[in-house]
Amino acid sequence: MARMLFNCLQLELRGAPPMAPGRYVLRGAEGGEIEHVLIVQEHAEARTRLTLIDAPPLSEEAQGQARLEALDHAAELAHLQQLLARVHAAARIASSDPHLHAPPEWARIEAARAGYGSGEELAHGRLARAHEIRLSDPAAHAQRAPFARVARRRHVPEPQERFAAILSGRTRALLCEELALRARADLDCGRFALGAILLERALAAALAELSPAAERLQQAPARRLPTASPLGGRPRLQRSGLRERISELEELRGALAPVASAALSGTESAGAASAQAESELLRHALERLEAALRARALSAASGRSPL
């Protein structure tokens, strides 16, 4: 009988693995079919090898060869990130390790491969045939974060400037900022249920933290903000748009509340169209919250904001 062959992805990492060496199965849902098998191997000098094997076998070896010959580096890396997010989320809960937030940063990855082999070969980390996956592929970077944020605005304070301001007490970090960052980390890794819950909480915190400032600014006159005119020259006079942003965040929180409630109860979306609509809502709400926080940071940097 011909040996059974399986597609796989393999990573070589610097550092210890987040879980004990061994063999683990990945299912899409409780009681569902096995989708992948994870082989964790720990080597000398703090090196780790992770092999993620597709559970369905290849119908013939030519199928695995065809995949390698037309290897889509970006798609393979995106798939690898999704699988690693699941692995690390499980390890985080199982180990009660609050510092295990996400898959290993890409700087720790020494090599990534797509290949195939027999079950016995792959169980020992050996591949019958493999191609290296390019880790520096620009298209791959674009696919790693499905909720990728828009490019940073020109007039957002530089991180070093904000860092100094927060440490010195000239401005304060908000709870909603931390919650927004955690929500983005979960959504970028495909943990949509947890991301939805955290994003709803981030919006609630933002409303509580930003609303008092909006009340103080209600009767404020127009003021100069460090926003350059598109025609050059002196900065334009602008009124604070904080109240309008808060109104928008209130509406988004109301729309997001049922999604977060469904995520908390474990209710799945009814159909692909509904799931797509929820995904777009999450994306839009996160982007608008981040935009409000950027505006708050810019106002704080101007030295005139009470935030």
Please describe the structure with a list of short key phrases separated by commas or semicolons:
307 residues; 8 strands; alpha+beta; 6-stranded antiparallel β-sheet; 9 helices; 17% strand
Write a short abstract of this structure:
With 307 residues, the protein is an alpha+beta fold.
Structural class, judged by helices and strands?
alpha+beta
What general form does the structure show?
elongated
Mean pLDDT over all positions: 80
The radius of gyration computed from the alpha-carbon positions, rounded to a whole number of angstroms, is: 24 Å
Major beta-sheet overview: 6 strands, antiparallel
Contiguous uncertain segments of 5+ residues: 138-145, 222-239
**Helix coverage percent:** 40-55%
Q: Quick one: how many beta strands? A: 8
**How big a fraction of the residues is strand?**
15-25%
Question: What is the number of independent domains?
Answer: 2
Instruction: Please report the number of helical segments.
Output: 9
Order of helices and strands: EEEEHHEHEHHHHEEHH
- Note the gap between the termini: 72 Å
Tell me the strand order in the biggest sheet. Answer: 2-3-4-1-5-6
Tell me about this structure.
The chain is of the alpha+beta class and 307 residues long. The chain has helices at 61-69, 73-95, 119-123, 138-144, 159-168, 175-188, 192-217, 242-265, 272-302, and strands at residues 5-14, 22-27, 34-43, 47-54, 109-118, 129-132, 223-224, 237-238. The protein has 2 domains: 5-144, no CATH class; 159-302. The protein is built from 9 helices and 8 strands. The protein has a 6-stranded antiparallel β-sheet with strand order 2-3-4-1-5-6. It has a two-stranded antiparallel ribbon with strand order 7-8. It is elongated. Mean pLDDT is 80; it is low at 138-145 and 222-239.
